[in-house]
């Protein structure tokens, strides 16, 4: 605990009478936006496995969390210690196989125990009103994350495909429905496109990886190749906008080959 005291002292000075006007006027709502930005920067550092950047971004995320906690403490809503004690008690309560007498021998058993304890906690809450297993999915989550959370919640309730092949068949079916709607109904096409994305989120879930990480890596791959192509075209004095499709494809393939060559690999045929 001693290591975060300097951060709390900085936050209190910034928000103090002789501190910073910007820091004093912040609210949990405004600071949440800062926290969200820092979380995405941390995600990027983790995906790239950039140790120095991970260290920096972890510090930034920690600072934003402490800042929000201090705002609530300063307003008298709840203290810093209350937040820490609440999460500590929850983690101990949700790990009876570590802190209690429960005996779990499989990951599936751990997951079921975790969900059962969460359900008991909610049932004992004064504000609890059981409506749907999807009630715990925040509506403001980014699209891919929310789709994954909704899917996982439905699976926990027993709604699941039997195999990855079935999920892939669903994705292919959605693509066909999208193609059919494109020529007739823009709104229907948009909905079908959303169905494609939702089904692909489930493909990723079933295959055992996070769709957000997959999309991030794919986007980064495209960005790297596009930057290489841009640089090459600039050196040659060529304009991408004025180039026929066949010529664009040639330069794109050359950029891909350059990326593979840097990795000591051959471009797949």
Q: Say what oligomer this is.
A: single chain
- Let me know the average pLDDT: 90
What is the CA–CA distance across the termini?
Answer: 56 Å
Poorly predicted sequence stretches spanning 5 or more consecutive residues? none
Radius of gyration: 25 Å
How many E strands?
0
What does this structure look like?
The protein is mostly helical. It has four domains: 2-92, Orthogonal Bundle (Helix Hairpins); 94-130, no CATH class; 161-209; 213-262, no CATH class. 72% of the residues lie in helices and 0% in strands. The protein has helices at residues 5-14, 21-24, 28-48, 51-74, 80-93, 96-99, 107-123, 143-156, 164-182, 186-207, 211-236, 245-262. Helix 3 (28-48) runs antiparallel to helix 4, helix 8 (143-156) crosses helix 10 (186-207) and helix 11 (211-236) crosses helix 12 (245-262). It is globular, with a radius of gyration of 25 Å. The model has no long low-confidence stretch (mean pLDDT 90).
Features:
269 residues, mainly alpha, Helix Hairpins
Describe the protein's topology:
Blueprint: H1 5-14, H2 21-24, H3 28-48, H4 51-74, H5 80-93, H6 96-99, H7 107-123, H8 143-156, H9 164-182, H10 186-207, H11 211-236, H12 245-262
Helix pairs in contact: 1-4, 3-4, 8-10, 9-10, 11-12
């Amino acid at each position: 605990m001693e290591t975060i005291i300097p951060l709390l002292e900085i936050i209190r000075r910034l928000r103090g009478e002789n501190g910073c006007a910007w820091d004093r006027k912040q609210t949990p709502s405004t600071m949440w936006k800062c926290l969200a930005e820092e979380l995405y920067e941390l995600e990027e550092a983790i995906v790239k496995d950039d140790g120095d950047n991970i260290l920096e971004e972890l510090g930034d995320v920690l600072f934003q969390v402490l800042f929000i906690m201090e705002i609530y403490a300063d307003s008298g809503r709840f203290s810093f210690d209350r937040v820490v004690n609440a999460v500590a008690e929850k983690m101990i309560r949700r790990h009876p196989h570590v802190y209690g007498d429960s005996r779990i021998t499989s990951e599936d058993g751990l997951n079921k125990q975790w969900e059962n304890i969460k359900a008991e906690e909610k049932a004992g809450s004064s504000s609890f009103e059981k409506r749907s297993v999807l009630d715990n999915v925040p509506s403001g989550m980014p699209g891919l994350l929310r789709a994954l959370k909704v899917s996982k919640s439905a699976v926990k309730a027993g709604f699941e495909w039997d195999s990855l092949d079935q999920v892939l068949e669903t994705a292919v079916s959605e693509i066909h429905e999208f193609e059919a709607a494109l020529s007739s109904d823009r709104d229907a096409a948009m909905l079908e496109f959303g169905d494609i994305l939702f089904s692909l989120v489930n493909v990723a879930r079933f295959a055992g990886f996070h769709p957000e990480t997959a999309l991030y890596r794919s986007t980064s791959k495209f960005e790297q190749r596009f930057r290489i192509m841009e640089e090459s075209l600039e050196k040659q004095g060529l304009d991408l906008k004025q180039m026929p499709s066949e010529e664009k494809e040639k330069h794109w393939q050359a950029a891909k080959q350059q990326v593979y060559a840097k990795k000591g690999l051959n471009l797949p045929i």
